[in-house]
Amino acid sequence: MTAGSDSVLELLPMVFADPGEARARAEHVLHTGPPPLHASVAHQVLGIWQRDFGDLKIALRHLRRARDLAARAASAEREADVLATLGVALVHAGRTRQGLASFERGVARGSGHTRARVRYRRAYVWWVLGRHREALEDVRRALPVLRQAGDDIWTARALTLRATVHLALGAVDRADADFTAAERLWDTTGQEHDKADAVESRGLAAFRSGDIPAALRLLDEAEERYAKLGTPTFMLSVRRCEVLMAAGLAPEALTEADAAIALLDRMGGQATRKAELLLAAAGAARSAGDTDTAVARAADAVRLFAVQRRPWWETHARLVLIEARAAAGGGSARLVADAAAAAERLAAFGSPAAPEASLLAGRIALGLGRTAQADRHLAVAARSRYGGPPTARVTGWVAQALRARAAGSPRGVREACRRGLDVLDDHRMTLGASELRARATARGAELAALAQEASLAHGGPRRLLEWSERWRATVLSAPPARPPADPALLGCLTAYREIAARAEEARREGRPVPALEREQRRLEREIRSRTHHTHGDAPGAGDRLDVARLLDRLGRARLIELAVVDGRVHVLLCGQGRVRRFAGGALAEAVAEAEHVQAGLRRLAHPGGEARLPLVEAAGRRLEEVLLGDAAAHLGPGPVVIVPPGALHRVPWALLPALRERVLSVSPSAGSWLRARETEPPRDGRTVLVRGPGLATGGAEVPELAGRYGTARVLEGRAAQVPSVLAELDGAGLAHLAAHGTFRADSPLFSALRMADGPLIVHDFERLARSPYRIILSSCDTARLASVGADELLGLVTALLPLGTAGVVASSAPVNDAAVVPLMLALHKGLDAGHSLAESLRDARAAQPDDPLHQATGWAFAAFGAA
């Protein structure tokens, strides 16, 4: 390029429009032996590039050189501009005092339009330091000058910054107005990096207003824009971590923060960004229950923020550190004082996190028995229950519930819990993805537990049932929202299936698969991301349990809901027009016994494991004592429905002696059983039989069933591909899928059935307009579920229930393929006779050979729902 003044000055806006090209041109200018003024610009451009996208030490060398060259050129305006850029870099390097001094000199040297730009950049630094009032003052003084000069780029930057400061102060409406005005200006420019930053900022605004799907979508869009420019995205990572934590995805947030910190360290990047990422990692680790990591990351963040003279950020990091220490080692008077001091400082800063600190101080004080002190802090936290984003209002209602409990008011506890869970219900239904809905319930776990505790102590069994249902299996109350014919999502699902099939084939042939597995993981991330963008479209919070209607619909049946309060199981026996409560044992003991049973069933699934049968049966008897207690003697002669908590979803209920000979079904909640009971079968009661590849028996039951049903749609061989299978399953009356099943504990919605062209995953099932009325999954582990949120379950079975399926038969353990065939044939014999799935499964178990292998196979299967 030429060395003319205008062409060289064009490099400065270019660094935020096309950073790579600006860097290359600046290096070219320096190779031409330019005069001091032009060399100053080129060094400034390289300094900006290194400051934001590279090594901060190199950035400082370039910027100091640019400052010295500007002074040699005797250009006060040029020197002022460089001093502002240098000030930003110094602050990001943690040299706050030197950075602010550079700004003072820049304001003094510049005038008019240049001084306004210097003030804007100082406002940005004030925001980085958490000094929001000073930031707003500098923007207030800069904006009129920038507008008068017709400087759309810097005006848009100033508006975006002011909006970001408003968000930090909780003024979402003001932020929205500024973001909108800035976006109109960005549309008139070619500043691609600035445009990406505007999209990122809108994502933050969406999050602050409580719209998590929009926030995730906008942050993903910003990341795509940055990727095209080849620029790192550390601030984006900080913001995404915050949104991921709010969405209940704390492990993902911790992974992202740690990866960004490692990259920043390798680059020698900004110390300010490292401190912010450490704070994000600390918060994510605390939410994920990793207190040691949370304490370590938070302590590092506190130290860095203190060195950088950033008290707003330092106080937020101290809050996370106090929370982590309280979780790790209980409470102390010192922690109460620290939390109270953090609350005061946060309130003085105008931070929306202040109520959380007050709640923490009150909670720790309650644990120490300091009721009066606790009430003072909780009263402050409770003020947030009537305004602000959902998380702040929930914080306020938790504080109010704790105050009521300390005051001995069970009615006050229940009212506060009801109001808080109503807030979360409204928030949950803005989320379209079933995974996010499920994980969002974690914030309501404490409210639900407080209400259950109050109901147990000061209410009858019916009230305890209502509160046990209030926050259980809520994700099943409405089907997940689906983006209409999203071509990008469909493309990702197809590509995922193809890659997974190729990886499976490579494993069978002994070929290396790392590259295929990396691509598979990438596609998994994209599929999850796209589903998370979906907004909820179900009005209200879903059905509330009508106990009277439940008792009426039970008829001769009994429903047993196992409620867990303070680690103890309480058996709520529903039937004969009433709800009775019986005492069970410790939940931890039941979980341990269930694990022993599962291990025994795995051994019994293979020849030679017969010696384990007495041990498995003994564990079943112990489970019955812990889980049913005296209620086992009051079940009556009719069918039984079991509603276990999430921690017990893998119990093989048919193994318990009191349930072994019964018509038995399982449901995630009483409400979901009632909805299944009242679900009408489709008019087109067609039967679909699917046989996937690679089964040890070749899916031997399918040909026999095809002969029995006559008009059944049979999909096998190459015909059993996912698109064809989904088309046939949609709206079917009965579907039988004989296919290898895999359960993904790390990502339950990628649990799958193996079809001819690859895995049929839960995300595929969620695209059905209506899943089959009855569905039988005859392979291993198809009933395995992941417990998330408060008491939610994610997996194949729970994906089907809200989509129109009223009954499922599936297994919760590995099973012997050969033993499954006669069990399935006997099951269908019962269905052909007009029996329900639960009745047919009971009769099928009884018809099997009396040996350990066949018995274990029968116990591994359960009927879910009510069809």
UniProtKB/TrEMBL annotation:
Q: Where is the CHAT domain?
A: 618-865
Output the Pfam families linked to this UniProt entry.
Answer: CHAT
Q: Which InterPro entries match?
A: CHAT_dom, TPR-like_helical_dom_sf, TPR_rpt
Tell me the protein's name: CHAT domain-containing protein
Organism, as annotated: Streptomyces bungoensis
